[in-house]
Amino acid sequence: MRGALSWPFLRLYLLTILYFSANSILNVIIPLKGESLGATNTTIGIIMGAYLFTTMLFRPWAGQMIHKYGAIKVLRTILAINGFALILYTFTGLEGYFAARILQGVCTAFFSMTLQLGIIDALPDKDRSQGISMYSLCASIPGIIGPLLAIGIWQTGDMNVFTAGMFGIAILTGVVGYSAKMDKKEAEPNSSPSGQHTTMLQSFSQLVKNPHLFKCSMLMLIASLVFGAVTTFIPLYAPQIEGGNAAIYLMIQAGTVVVARFVLRKKIPSDGKWHSTFIMSMVLIVAVAAQSVSFSVMGGAVFFYVGALLMGIAQAVLYPTLTTYLTFVLPQMNRNVLVGLFIAMADLGVSLGGVIMGPVADLSSYSFMYMICAILAVLMILFAYERSKVVGELKDI
Predict the structure, then answer these.
(1) What letters, b where the CB count within 10 A reaches 16 and e where it falls short, cover 78-91?
(2) 332 φ, ψ to 5°?
(3) What's the CATH number where 278 sits?
(4) 258-313 per-position pLDDT tens digit
(5) pLDDT exceeds cutoff 60 at 395
(6) 45: how many CB neighbours lie within 10 A of its CB?
């Protein structure tokens, strides 16, 4: 096999699956544990949001550190820190969970930047979207079985099983990660001019000044906010729905992400053009999915699981589409840093899904909170619209 499915990339995808497997379990265990300890939705949202909020803060610096110290050294260091964070969950309470989420966030910033930027730089233009989609696919695979395992662990009431699982994942990920190899050019540190740090700091202004980066970042921020609200509160919302099951919902969503990213990986635009109709359709699906989840408290489990299916499709396609587009239109000189900022906005959105929507749920209800998410997504449909591009696309049909 060649390109994005060649053996060197398959090995990176395997490491990705192992790395994110713990989080698929923690995304269910932490809200359930927090509720059992009497924590409010606001507190649970803050703990859950700390993970990707920290990732967002550290991601713009990750590329520079990797460039300075070498990918292999950085990878091995973060895997050791990540292992410690996973073990921290096994013997602490909510305060320890908060600290562990922060540690995990730091590790994920470096881990994902190492792999994604490596894929972008290594693959030719025509295969770039496939590589990004495959990485995202593998990051989503643990979400298929992880929620079911988490519910099973929680229902046994024996947290020793949880402890064994975290230790096992930490060890296995470390073994695979420490045995990973990269080309000598990728693995070695690179002594670059000191001006790079200044360039990186100045790049923050591009979030507003660069119209391509601004549009993609805003779309991803709101979409990720919806995804984050689902991840954080579905385990607590599902019992309110007749026939609703959080594990089944999360498995349907993650399974749809995996299937859609593999089946549609060649359909994702990889030409550097803004496909308004396509992107607006994906944001519309986010809105319909959120509203379906909101209505399920009255309409029943059918709407609940349809929402999971639609949410999975949107999540599978929107992120790689926007990321691939940016790799073409951003200036080559500081492309990696700017892509890092875009990914950081996606992280911020997921974090805000817990931090902002938690108080909304406390003041109203989960159903109302998901309706707010749907309204925000509808507004982003208008934001994605570019009349000239839509007219051109319709003429081509």
Answers:
(1) bbeebbebbbbbbe
(2) -60, -35
(3) 1.20.1250.20
(4) 888 778 877 787 788 888 899 999 999 999 999 999 999 999 999 999 999 999 99
(5) no
(6) 29
Whether 273 contacts 212, CB under 8 Å:
no
Chain position carrying tokens 């498995």 = 251
Q: How confident is the model at residue 314 (pLDDT cuts 50, 70, 90)?
A: very high
Q: How many CB atoms lie within 10 A of CB 131?
A: 26
H helix or E strand, kind and range, residue 331: none
Q: Of 16-20, 174-178, 285-289, where does mean pLDDT reach its minimum?
A: 174-178
Count the domains in the chain: 1
CA angle, 105 as apex, 174 and 62 as ends, to 5°?
85
CA–CA gap between residue 131 and residue 5 (Å, rounded)? 8
Cβ pair 374, 247 in contact under 8 A: no
- Across 174-192, average pLDDT: 61
pTM of the model: 0.77
Look up the domain containing 200 and give its range.
3-179+196-396
Position 191 in a domain = no
Give the whole-angstrom CA distance, residue 312 versus residue 264.
13
Residue 186 domain flag: no
Tokens of 48: 């859950």
Residue 382 to residue 360: CA distance in whole angstroms: 24
Is there a domain that residue 185 lies in? no
Q: pLDDT tens digits, residue range 67-108?
A: 677 777 788 889 999 999 999 999 988 889 999 999 999 999
**Inter-residue contact 346 to 226 (CB < 8 Å):** no
Cβ partners under 8 Å of residue 279, min gap 6: 219, 318, 321, 322, 384
189 inside domain? no
Buried b (16+ CB within 10 A) or exposed e, 208-237: eebebbebbbbbbbbbbbbbbbbbbbbbbb
- From CA 335, how far away is CA 329, in angstroms rounded? 9
For residue range 244-254, what is the model confidence (pLDDT) as tens digits?
999 899 999 98
| Dist CA 34 CA 44 (whole Å) | 6
